[in-house]
Design a protein that fits this description.
mainly alpha; Growth Hormone, Chain: A; about 0% strand
């Protein structure tokens, strides 16, 4: 297949901006909005949906949660084809497909007459379309506009997911109480369509990264054709990124579904348990900014190692702490370390594999992480049920993160530009 270098076959544009403002920052703002509106109504409001679906369709929670599980599963596995699609199609077209598909899915859910119809839409149209406005696509956009400050730019854009976690659960509850759940889905469908104009004008790749955003020549990845899938899969760098970032995602998903019940098991209220969730979310926002800057100014692998160490330390504090202030501190450590995950993942993949192979590398690493992220919450439930305690769960996740930390030393120089080949 013939490809244009750097533009993934898109309609590219000048990197300049009006009044001396770099246009890349407008792209970062767009990606923030895409991630906020993609994650909020699809993922973070699903708990609100579950209550409404149970009442309207007399469905049990296990059945209702199939929709959420399928969104997570297809969101992981579908990232690989979407990443490769972004190499062949204009990036603007991929993002618009995501917006239109998700909006259509919400409109269809508003007319559903059974839980089966709801699950069918969430498990197909919404799940697949939402990938097209997720982190794979936004990271491709941001990484083509930034090189010197790529970590910071990605860190700012992915804060959209944290904002979504804060805004959409209470917003959905308010809309449900005032308009009902069917009207709320229509409101969210219209809200998705608001993204169309900025995507149309901003979701394009520059002909070249602006000179003030370029790294010194010695630090740039050597140019050349994109690597093949077989070469990528044989690369130690691919598996180190997949396993380390996958461990962070798995520890996070396992912690999110367990920490409220953990707090209650220690004699605290569910409100205090929910506060621990909020602390993790708030400190992860700060972590995204700090680790984004650290990835630019120090090294992505240093930022990754610090993030892994902080997450593991936070889990150990949770496992051993008896007083609530200790649990609060453990949650802060865990959340701040978690902030390293998305900026480092997006930045280090671009550095190792280059922009010519970025879509496929980002998509396939996320797809390969799926088993870890899906299994960790299940193991958390099994272990807590078997032992009657969550301390073994936290120690298991801490050990997983410690092994991932050690893995970052497995292949010398694996994170450096040009080290994606099997000859590393």
């Amino acid at each position: 297949m013939t490809r244009r270098p750097s533009s993934y076959g898109t309609t590219s544009q000048s990197a300049g901006g009006a009044a001396g403002i770099y246009r890349g920052w407008a792209v970062v703002a767009l990606c923030f909005a895409m991630l906020m509106l993609g994650a909020g109504p699809v993922y973070y409001a699903y708990g609100n949906y579950a209550l409404a679906f149970a009442q309207s369709f007399n469905a049990d929670r296990a059945t209702i949660n199939i929709g959420y599980t399928m969104v997570l599963l297809l969101g992981n596995l579908g990232s690989a084809p979407v990443g490769m699609m972004a190499e062949r199609w204009p990036i603007r077209g991929v993002a618009l497909l995501g917006v239109l598909g998700t909006a259509a899915g919400f409109a269809l859910v508003s007319t559903a007459s059974s839980i089966l119809q709801v699950l069918l839409v969430f498990s197909t149209l919404i799940a697949l379309a939402d990938i097209c406005i997720g982190t794979v696509v936004t990271n491709i956009l941001v990484s083509h506009w930034f090189e010197r400050r790529r970590g910071l730019a990605i860190g700012l854009s992915v804060i959209g997911t944290a904002v979504a976690a804060v805004i959409f659960p209470p917003l959905t509850d308010i809309l449900f109480s005032r308009f009902g759940w069917r009207a709320t889905f229509l409101i969210y469908a219209v809200l998705m369509l608001v993204l169309i104009p900025p995507i149309w004008f901003l979701a394009r790749l520059p002909d070249n990264i602006a000179e003030h955003e370029r790294l010194p020549l010695a630090l740039r990845r050597p140019g050349g054709p994109p690597i093949s899938l077989s070469e990528m899969f044989r690369s130690p760098a691919f598996w180190i990124v997949t396993l380390t970032i996958g461990a962070m995602i798995g520890a996070n998903t396992g912690t999110m579904v367990s920490i409220v019940a953990f707090a209650v098991s220690r004699g605290f209220s569910s409100l205090e348990g929910s506060a621990l969730l909020s602390v993790i979310g708030a400190t992860s926002v700060a972590g995204k900014l700090v680790f984004g800057i650290a990835a630019d100014r120090l090294s992505p692998v240093i930022a990754l190692r610090i993030g892994l160490a902080l997450m593991a330390s936070g889990l150990i504090v949770l496992a051993t702490g008896l007083l609530y202030p200790m649990l609060f501190g453990g949650a802060m450590l865990f959340g701040f370390g978690l902030g390293a995950m998305l900026p480092v993942w997006g930045g280090i993949v671009a550095k190792i594999f280059g922009l010519g192979s970025y879509g496929r590398a980002l998509g396939w690493t996320r797809a390969a992480m799926a088993p870890i992220s899906m299994v960790c919450p299940i193991f958390a439930g099994l272990i807590s049920d078997a032992t009657g305690d969550y301390a073994p769960v936290w120690m298991m996740f801490a050990a997983l993160l410690a092994l991932s930390f050690a893995l970052t030393f497995a292949a010398p120089g694996w994170w450096r530009p040009g080290h994606a080949s099997t000859e590393t």
